[in-house]
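Supplementary Methods, section 5.1.

A reviewer requested that the exact input to the structure prediction be made available. We therefore reproduce it here, unchanged from the version used in the analyses.
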Amino acid sequence: MLNLERLRTLDAVARHGSVSGAADGLHVTTSAVSQQLSKLEREVGQRLLAKNGRGVRLTDAGLLLAEHAARILSHVQLAQADIEARRGQVVGEVRLVGFPTAARGLFPAALAALRTRHPDLRVRTAEFEPEQGVRAVLRGDADLAIVLDWSNRRAPVPGELERAHLLDDAADVALPAGHRLADREAVDLADFADEEWVSWPEGEFCHDWLMFTLRSQGIEPRIAHFAGEHHTQLALVAAGLGVCVTPRLGRPHPEGVVCVPVRQQVRRHIYATWRTDAGRRPSLRAVVEALREAGQPHADRAPRRPA
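The structure derived from this sequence is encoded token-by-token as follows.
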């Protein structure tokens, strides 16, 4: 009889491509992963891993069993979702990941509400960028991810996932307080054709969106600084080192920065996404609803201007 946890370990190695990656995904030690795989090899009577340089690879038998393991685990998750749905109870554990501004702007209120309403539900959270979050859900390392796209540049959703809209998050242009346009009620992106910009790191979806959006306005962006965190971006703006686009959700408000709305209504669409085979779980639906409620105060909030 094949052991389910050992199959889960093999599946993690196949998905992550390494023992260390599987250990990280399963939140165990590499030694624990190796022990589980050794026991599984003894159970099936065949080698499942072979050395590959400094790492390992799955043997043909390992690849075959990993394919079966993925299907078995998917059926187990579906069975668990069906049983949970039949009971109608919000219990168990949900692993929730989200990008930093969603974690800062949504998680505290949502988790506090869930603790009050559903004391038997445990929610574990971590910060993941949207692309990482999607991969984590697809791999089974997370149950629910908060992801985003932009009103003028949509992100595809893999066929194995479902998603639910949480809120639309308006974005503004952040300017140094002494900037010539800081007293405007609204601005156009074209007003900043000659400005230096602070952007997200190259290769990230939001950086690609910024390049696409500015170029669609006839602006060839002059990127002076790259920073993944909005705190860092706004600190650079406050120092007079450029301007940036900054969404309102979870935004810090450092001194020396003015945020001015964009007439073109630049907006992020923020979603929760999960595996289709887990969609009937009442616990997932409860978390999504709490996140949606937590987002309502942010949906139409006006930008904060300095006193």
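The longest strand covers residues 161-176. These observations are discussed further in the main text.
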